Amino acid sequence: MFDNYFEIFLADTLEGRKIHFNIRYQVYCEELGYEDPEQFPDKLEFDKWDPQNDHDANTQLFLVRLKHTGQWIGAMRLVHHTGTSLPLEEVSTLNHSIKHPSIEISRLCLIKEIRRPYIQNAYGINENKTEINNATSITKDFEHIKLFYSNPKVKSTIIWGLFNATTTYSKANNIKKWYLLSSKALIRVISRQGFKIEQVGSDCEHRGKRAPYRFDVNEISNHPIWDDFKQQYQLFSDLMRPTATFANQMTA
Fold first, then answer.
1. What pLDDT shows up at residue 238?
2. Alpha-carbon distance 189 to 167, whole Å?
3. Fewer beta carbons within 10 Å, N or C terminal of the chain?
C-alpha cells in the first residue's frame, strides 16, 4: 500500500525544511497545542536541534507526501548523538551511556486529516482488498486538499514507511541504535508489528506519560515487513520544481 500512495523525501534544502517546519506547526501548535504559536509567527515550528543550513549533518528532516494529490501530510526528524546528549534527555533519564552511533527519532507527526478516523474504507483498497486504479473515485475535496478517506491501517503504514526510510538512512550512515521518547500507545502499535523494543529509562511526564525506548538497527533492518517497501526515500532537491509550486502547497 505505501509505495502506491505515499512517498518520502529528505528535506535537504531550505524550501524542504520550511515545509517540514510548517507541518510541525500545524500539528504541534494549531492542532495539539503542545507549542505556543505566538513563538512562531512565520508558522514554522523549530528548535535548537534542527539543522541551521543545508550542510548541517547532525539532524535530518523527512517529509511524507500523498502521491495522488501532492499534499504534504507528515514529518519526522532524526537527531544524531554527537557525544553530548539527545533531545529526549532533556525530559527523561537514560539508564545507560550511549556508546554506539545512534540517532533519536523525534517530531514524528501526521496532519489531522490523516490522523482523523473515517468510517469509509480507503487509499485505493476496497473491502475485497482489491486496488482501485481510478484515483478520482477515491478522492474528495476537503478544504484546501484532496483527502483520501482513512483506513485504520493507514497511519501505521505511514509509520512503517518512515521507519523504512530511517533504516535506509541508518545503514548508509553506520547508525547502530535508534532512540524514541514515546507513549505506551505508539509502542503497542510498533510492538504488534513484531519489532523488538527496549525501554531504557523510567516513565516521565512530557505531554502525557512518556518513556525512552531503544531499537537495534540490525534487528529492524532484517524485519520481513520491508519486503513490501521497495521505494526508497528521495532528496527534496531532486524534485526540481519552481519555488512557487511548493510554497502554494504549504497550508496555513
1. 92
2. 18
3. C
pLDDT value for 176: 97
Q: What angle do CA 178, 89, 167 make, to 5 degrees?
A: 10
Residue 236: the pLDDT is 96
Mean pLDDT (10-residue bins), the chain, 252 residues: 91 96 97 95 96 90 93 96 92 94 96 64 35 40 43 81 97 97 92 93 92 96 92 91 52 46
The CATH homologous superfamily of the domain defined by 2-249: Gcn5-related N-acetyltransferase (GNAT) (3.40.630.30)
Please name which of 208, 165, 40, 24 lies closest in space to residue 108, comparing C-alpha atoms. 24
Compute the distance between CA of residue 50 and CA of residue 152 in angstroms, rounded to an integer.
Answer: 31
Sequence spans of domains, the chain? 2-249
